[in-house]
Amino acid sequence: MTEKQEEYRKALIRAIHTSDGYRERIDVGGKELWREYLQNMYNVDSSKKLSIEELNNLLFILKGQTTEIKKGGYRPAPEGKITEKQLKAIEAIWEARAREKTPLALREFVDKTIKRKPLYLTSLTKQEATKIITAIKKL
Known about the structure:
Elements: H1 3-17, H2 20-42, H3 52-62, H4 84-97, H5 103-114, H6 126-137
């Protein structure tokens, strides 16, 4: 993400947190209701985890300009965590190359490759994901 994009994201987050729609939700149910609202709409617990597209959409919803929920766009990955692109690559390459395409078989393969069996692929690090992608490509 470029510096200008990051500044724009921060400006959108400020606009969201100062909007009347946000304040109404905070006044009614507090921060816990806000987190639940974000979880239901975008499957995140903080507006910091939303993409620019999603932040724009959320701002329009809070201002009452739309009711349509738009998900997607580039979301910044937490430091060191697997990116969405890596996750999609693992799943796609696995589907294309594996003999047994079940989620359990993928977990077993991950366990053999990185010597641990994560409950969810999203808990992998970037380095682990890179190792797994390389190993699947060698199948």
